[in-house]
Amino acid sequence: MIQSRQPRTRSHLSAVLLATTIGAGVTTTASADTSLNVVGSWGSLELHQKFEQPFWSETLPKASNGEITTQVTSFDQMGIASGDVFRYLGDGLFDVGMTVGDYTVSDAPELEGLDLPMMTTESEDARAVAEAFRPIAENALNQRFNSHVLAIVPYPAQVLFCNTPISGLADLEGKKVRGSGRSTGEFLEALGAQSLNIAFNEVPGSLERGVIDCAVTGSMSGYSAGWYDVSSHVLPLPIGGWDYVITAINQDKWQSLDADEQELIQKQIDEQFTMPVWANAKSETQRGIACLTGQGECPAGEAAGMTLVEPTEADTERARQALKDVVLPAWAKRVDADTIRQWNESVGQVVDLKADAP
C-alpha cells in the first residue's frame, strides 16, 4: 500500500507562502470573487519563467476581467520538496500546484506510465502520449491527492550529459549516472549503468567532484543550470523521457467554482498555456543542444563547447529493448490490472507497446 507523508509544519509553510508571493511582487491587487494561490515548477527554468508565471499572474486575471486574482511562486522558491507539491495541494495549503509527474511516483505509481524512458523521441508523439494518458492522470490525482488535472506539459527531451568521453549508450556500462525518476533509474540499470538519485540543483557539484559520471536532464535546463561547465559530452536521446509537468487544482477549490469560472480557467489554460508550451517544446530541445555545443544559434546567451554525440541506430534499438524487456514490465508490477488495461488501450496504442499484467 502506498503511504503518503503528511506535512509537518503547515502553519509555517502557510506563512512562507504568503511572504513569498507578496515579496515576489506578482500578486494582483484588484478585488475579486476568486483568489488562487499558485505554486509552479522549478522557478529557475524556462517553463516557469516564460509560461507558468506569466499565465497565472497576468493572462488568466486579465481574461477574467479582474474577477480572478492570483498569488504566484514556485515550489523551490517556497522551499517545498518537489515530491511534496501534490501532497500539500491535496491538503489545501494552496490552490494550484505544478510538479513533474515522476517526482510523485512513490505516492502514485500510475503516473510513471506517462513518461517511460525512450517511449517517444519526437515532441508530436510525446504530446499524443500526454493526451492519451490524461484520464489515468485525472483518476490518480483525484484519488490520491484530492486534486483535478488542468494540464500536462513537457520540459524538453531529457538527454544525457557526461563529464567523460562517450560515443553512445554502450559506454554507460559501469558508469554512475543521475536519473530523474524511478523508471529512468531502472532504464539506466538495464543499460549496465549504476543509477543514483541526486537532486537537480546538486548535480553540477556531483559531476565536478566525480560523484557521478553522467546525468540526465533537459537540454535547455542543463544549459540554464550551467551543466556545460562540469560536463563535456551530450547525447541527445530522450533517455529520461520528457519530464512532463502536471498542473492540478485542489478538488475542493475546483468544486467551489461555478461552471463559468471552471470553463474560463480550463479554456485559458488549453489555449494560452498548454498550446504555447507544446509549441515551444518542439524547438527547445534543439535550441538547448545548440547552446550547449555551439552547433547552431543560441538565443539564450553565449554557446558552450560541449561535444555532441550523435545517436546511432544501435543506440535507439538498445534503448527500445531495455524499455520493453525491463522498464515496462517493472512498472506493470507496481500498478493494478485496471491501470494496465487503460494504458494498453490508450498510450500503448500510440507507442505500439503492450504492458502485461504480472
Q: Summarize this, please?
A:
45% of the residues lie in helices and 15% in strands.
Plain-language structure description:
The protein is α/β, with parallel strands linked by helices. It folds into two domains: 10-155 and 242-285, D-Maltodextrin-Binding Protein, domain 2; 158-241 and 294-351, Bacterial extracellular solute-binding protein, family 7 (D-Maltodextrin-Binding Protein, domain 2). The chain contains 13 helices and eleven strands. The chain has a six-stranded mixed sheet with strand order 7-6-8-5-9-11, sandwiched between helices. It has a five-stranded mixed sheet with strand order 2-1-3-10-4, with helices on both faces. Helix 2 (46-63) packs antiparallel against helix 10 and helix 6 packs across helix 11 (313-332). The longest helix has 35 residues, at 259-293. It is globular, with a radius of gyration of 20 Å. The two termini are 17 Å apart. Mean pLDDT is 90; it is low at 1-12 and 18-32.
Strand order across the biggest sheet? 7-6-8-5-9-11
Task: Please report the distance between the alpha carbons of the first and last residues.
Answer: 17 Å
CATH domain fold name of the largest domain: D-Maltodextrin-Binding Protein, domain 2
**Secondary-structure element series:** HEHEHHEHEEEHEHEHEEHHEHHH
Described by strand count, sense and barrel closure, the largest sheet is: 6 strands, mixed
GO biological process, one term: transmembrane transport
InterPro entries: DctP_fam, TRAP_DctP_sf
Pfam family, one: DctP
Protein name: C4-dicarboxylate ABC transporter substrate-binding protein
